[in-house]
Every structure is written in structure tokens, then in C-alpha cells.
Amino acid sequence: MDTYERSVRVRAPFEAVWEFHSDKSGLVALTPGWMKLEVEEITGPDGEPDPDVLEVGSILRSSVRPLGIGPRQSWTSEIVAREREDGTAYFRDVMTDGPFAEWEHTHHFYADGDETIIRDHVEYELPMGALGRGVGPLAV
Predict the structure, then answer these.
(1) Can you tell me the distance from the alpha carbon of 82 to that of 85, in angstroms, rounded to the nearest whole number?
(2) Tell me: the pLDDT tens digits for 30-61?
(3) Exposure pattern of 12-40 as b/e (b: 16+ CB <10 Å)?
(4) How far apart are CA 2 and CA 104, in angstroms?
(5) Which CATH architecture group holds 2-139?
């Protein structure tokens, strides 16, 4: 699988950043407008619709239409891990249905004084075998 990593320093305290990323409003706010994201349904691990916090077992059903071109593409993800300790946290979502052959995204959060460092680690595989591998770096 291919890998994409990115780190960013956020000028906000750890608690605020972790909370922001713990519900759907963070996903919506951080997804670029050109992706045309629509969150269609979120189900908590107990079947509760629109949970306040995205816990392990939460399912997110959404769709995207990058640049408004072509048909909408369904994207279903599940939160498969979520842990928080003093000053560090992470959660991992796995695409269970969507445009990639595989997609696993781990979001790491580290307190650094009054700021937070976020490190994203994505492991992905595009469909179409060798052709997908050839365009992989352009797709993520």
C-alpha cells in the first residue's frame, strides 16, 4: 500500500483540538469545499443516530463529488480505534466502502504547550492495480 503523511501545528490547546475532531463538524469543516462532501448518515456503535462523539464502532456514510465532476462517490468509514492519554490521542478510521481499494487513516494528536501537533498517516491503495499505483501520488 502507498502511504501519505502530513503534520501540522495548530495554535489551539490539545483539549479543544481533540474535541473538534471528535464529531462530524470537524470532518465537514476540514474537508475542502471542492470535494463537495455530503455526510448522509452517522450511526454510533450502539445504533444511535448522529452521536455526539465518534467512538469506536461509529459508521459514517457520506459521498463526495470532487470538483463537481462525474457522479457522486459513496464513502463509508468506520472508527476502528480511539484512545486518549494525558496530552496524546489518536483515532483511526477505515474505509469499508468507497472509491479506494483500501484506505486506513490514523489521526495522531500531541499537546505542545498551548498548541497541538496533528499528524495524519494514511495507508491507501487505489483500484485498478498497476494503473492505480501509477496515479496514486496524485490522488491523495
Answers:
(1) 10
(2) 999 999 999 999 999 999 999 999 999 999 99
(3) eebeebbebbbbbebbeeeeeeebbbebe
(4) 11
(5) 2-Layer Sandwich (3.30)
First and final C-alpha spacing in the chain: 13
- CA dihedral of 130, 136, 138, 140, whole degrees rounded to 10: 160
* Burial environment of residue 62 by CB neighbours within 10 A (0 to 12, 13 to 18, 19 or more): buried
Could you tell me the pTM of the whole model? Answer: 0.87
Q: Residue 51: which residues within 8 A CB-CB, separation 6 or more? A: 23, 42, 43, 44, 58
Domain layout of the chain by residue ranges: 2-139
113-131: average pLDDT:
87
Going by pLDDT thresholds of 50, 70 and 90, the confidence category of residue 139 is: low
Which helix (H) or strand (E) segment holds residue 111: the answer is strand 102-112
Partners of 106 in beta bridges: 92, 121
pLDDT score recorded for residue 134: 54
Predicted local distance difference test score (pLDDT) of residue 131:
46
